[in-house]
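ARCHIVE RECORD
Type: protein–small molecule complex
Small molecule: 6-O-phosphono-beta-D-galactopyranose
Source of inputs: curated submission
Record status: active
Notes field left blank by submitter.
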Amino acid sequence: MRLKDDFLWGGSIAAHQCEGAYDEGHKGLGIMDLVTVGAYGKPREIHKQLSGSAHYPSHQGIDFYHRYKEDIALFAEMGFKALRISIDWSRIYPNGDEEIPNQEGIRFYQNVVDELIKYGIEPIVTLYHFEMPVHLVKTYGSWVNRTVIDNYLTFCKTMFEALKGKVRYWVTFNEMNHLDPQTEASDIFTYIIAGLKYSELENKKQTLATIGYNMTLASCLAVKLGHTVDPLNQIGCVFGIEPVYPVDCNPINVMNAFKQMDRDFYQIDAMCNGLFPAYKIREYQSQGIEIAVSEEDSKAFRNGTIDFIGMNYYASSVAEYEGAEEGKSALFGGLQNPYLEASKWGWTIDPVGLRYLLNYTYRKYGIPIIITENGLGAVDQLTEDRKIHDEYRIDYLKKHITQLKKAVEIDQVDCFGYLTWAPIDLVSATTGQMSKRYGFVYVDLDDHGEGTTERIKKDSFDWFKGVIETNGED
Ligand code: BGP
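STRUCTURE (tokenized, with ligand):
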């Protein structure tokens, strides 16, 4: 079996990482508007208020807000079949809890979607990609509070209706899976996902469990809502998963690896099986964490199963030895795999891990999967004649596409698309840097926001164009 003729080749971007214009169009303040750029190896800082002294990269992004037509034209030139964008909640409901949405925000996304459709590019819309109005965190305490679920559903309904008939593929959340009470979370991760600082949480385990539960519930309710607004909607959820390998074949270490990887799946279990998993509730109970699934919630889980799974795949990791307190991700300083190379940021380069993950997930759930993010963050050198020779990026992507094809052609995984992160350079989520680049298109901006914002095609631009033209045969 070859890749389907309508296989969705393309890319993924997120509003807060590319739009900029953080205070234009009556946009409210979003949580990522308060995060500074992090020095290399140092976490980003979270500020309580805006101050003139720090650099907030999401304030300017790559100016996609004003330049989206030009950028989409470049994606069209590459032959993109799909582009995943996100809607910044704070553009639609500046505070998150208003009754009337901001029409200017709605119009902006309608224009972006129209532009994509003009070129025959399928829009895939994420409703929550780390973009929460700050007001909801300050007033209600974020996802800990169920009122925020209602606010989120109001926002979803507004967007389902505003883009009805134009958008077929929806994503309820990006990577809600990173918060789990079993692991120590970093401030920046709890902040990115829920606008809260881990170190300041009072009852850490209970809070993370409640957030995880409420977001899962919110996703199921949004799926049901989206299907009601338009039964043709295909609604999924995106997870960022790393395969976790045992450090050796000692069964204790194999068990450690299993447990570490399994932590990322309870929400997918809930969304695919239509019930919040009993094993998770029992695990919580054994640790004094209270999660009560009411009759009403059970109904919501049953009626809100997803149509597809979105997978963000960058790297695999190795579980810690028995005795180590926490398993750490390869993305954030865990054990390195001696068989694999890593990016400058220590993220392992493991194309076979993609095939493994696709197999693992498809066999577990049997519903269609789309790769919603995959790519290499690298420092690109602009040559004197203003070119970027990024053969390392081509090499990375080529190897991953080869493994994806094996998963489809040999292993019979139902994978209907491959979206790279990110087709154009934009602000990195975990570091806030511009210098961690993923794009086929270079954006002339540095970590301090200095530069012309000129767009320059890298060598990988033509290469990816060829991949799409030949449906992955190139
Ligand atoms: C994913 C996020 C993206 C993106 C990507 C790369 O987890 O969904 O928003 O940023 O990671 O991460 P970074 O930008 O930190 O290199």
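CURATOR ANNOTATION: Residues 125 and 423 are 16 Å apart (CA to CA).
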